[in-house]
Write a structure and sequence with these properties.
CATH architecture of the largest domain in chain A: Beta Complex
Oligomer: heterodimer
CATH architecture of the largest domain in chain B: Beta Complex
Number of strands of chain A: 10
Order of helices and strands of chain A: EEEEEEEEEEHH
Radius of gyration of chain B: 27 Å
CATH class of the largest domain in chain B: Mainly Beta
Structural class of chain A: alpha+beta
Number of helices of chain A: 2
Largest sheet of chain A: 6 strands, antiparallel
CATH topology of the largest domain in chain B: Metal Binding Protein, Guanine Nucleotide Exchange Factor, Chain A
Strand content of chain B: 25-35%
CATH topology of the largest domain in chain A: Metal Binding Protein, Guanine Nucleotide Exchange Factor, Chain A
Helix content of chain A: 25-40%
Number of strands of chain B: 10
Bound molecules: zinc ion
Radius of gyration of chain A: 28 Å
Largest sheet of chain B: 7 strands, antiparallel
Chain lengths: 205, 160
């Protein structure tokens, strides 16, 4: 699962950006509030959503409101997507409808979802801020961003540039040594000039 | 209510059935004397069709009642006709602030104190990281262009 905090985000450095004047403001226009579809009680909001667990059609939430009640009893699942997990059921504190689960113990593939609120999309409505509309949560995507993929791409871009810089440095060094050579022996200069142009053309691709 | 994120928007809920009826992003003004806020009117609200004379001010205007689409209870009023001094309220949803509101980000029930190593990345944070990455990528493109220029420059100089 890719929604665990990467190490460079472990501190709160994202909100104390010292070099940029642009403060990271949350785009509230795209936020939503999750309501119980039966009784409209506020359950959570998109600020604490961390993604989606598609196989159980649930939204992964870090925090929920105090109106969500965790049932005391641990239950065990022996089949289906949550097979071999123990969990506690979440319910709406007002209408007592089951809202989802909190996983307590899990096989490896679910371990990143332990201790988080997994809220079933089909029992939730979304109030979309600024649009002021209520839609079914099943119609809204809470998918994670491909951050890992983007970081790898950026890293590759930068590595290619570093190569180019090194190549240019090599060419410059060659040129300056060429100048020294030229002062001493003139006729030998043509050979290394053609080599440096070859380097230049191979590097521009 | 202002701890943490002071500028987080509030969602206003029907006092009876808790359905969301608007939010502070569609804020259109306020009347502190009457403890009233003005919001833009939208689908969650049923606009009454019988205007009556409002007598809350010296100079009355014509108002209609606004009701919750979910339960039908009256949420506020909307001026359809106003004297000059009340023009700022015309065609807006005048809502009493004594109704319930939910401030975005105020949900505070967490399972256990998840230690920071295991803290999942919220979609909001992912978005911030993504935006910064777009900026860095743009920088990388600029650097790439500069390098290309230097390369061409060196090439023409070595040819001449
Ligand atoms: Zn409920
Ligand atoms: Zn209502």
């Amino acid at each position: 699962m890719s929604h665990r905090k990467p190490s460079f985000l472990l501190t709160d450095s994202y909100d104390c950006d010292s070099t940029q004047s642009s403060v990271h403001t949350v785009d509230y226009e795209r936020c939503c509030v999750l309501h119980c579809a039966k009784c409209s009680t506020v359950i959570a909001d998109s600020l604490s959503a961390c993604g989606e667990a598609k196989s159980i059609k649930s939204i992964i939430c870090l925090k929920v409101t105090q109106d969500v009640k965790v049932r005391g009893k641990f239950e065990v699942c022996l089949e289906g997507p949550l097979a071999f997990c123990t969990y506690r059921v979440l319910e709406c504190g007002i209408c007592h409808r089951s809202m989802g689960v909190i996983l307590h113990s899990t096989p490896t593939h679910w371990s990143s979802l332990r201790n988080l609120f997994l809220l079933r999309k089909e029992v939730l409505n979304c109030y979309m801020l600024s649009k002021c509309t209520v839609v079914k949560a099943t119609k809204v995507s809470f998918e994670t961003r491909p951050i890992r993929k983007n970081i790898i791409e950026l890293q590759q871009d930068l590595q290619a540039q570093l190569k180019q810089v090194e190549m240019l440095k090599e060419v410059l060094e060659e040129k300056s040594s060429l100048r020294v050579d030229q002062r001493r022996v003139r006729p030998n200069a043509s050979a290394s000039t053609s080599r440096s142009t070859a380097l230049l053309t191979s590097g521009s691709k | 209510e202002e701890d943490g994120d002071g500028d987080a928007p509030a969602v206003f809920l029907c006092g009876k059935c808790r359905r969301p009826v608007g939010d502070s992003l569609s804020w259109a003004g306020s009347d502190e004397q009457l403890n009233q806020i003005m919001l833009k009117v939208h689908d969650n609200i049923v606009i009454g069709n019988e205007p009556y004379v409002s007598s809350t001010r010296k100079e009355p205007g014509l108002v209609v009642n606004l009701a919750c689409r979910g339960c039908g209870s009256t949420l506020g009023i909307m001026y359809t006709s106003t004297p000059k001094e009340l023009d700022f309220k015309r065609s807006y949803f005048c809502f009493g602030v004594e109704n319930i509101e939910y401030v975005l980000g105020s949900a505070d029930q967490q399972v256990a104190v998840v230690d920071s190593k295991d803290m999942p990345v919220t979609l909001e944070l992912q978005e911030i990281v993504e935006q910064q990455m777009i900026k860095i990528k743009a920088l990388a493109v600029t650097i790439g262009h500069r390098l290309m220029e230097i390369e061409l420059d060196l090439q023409t100089k070595s040819e001449s």
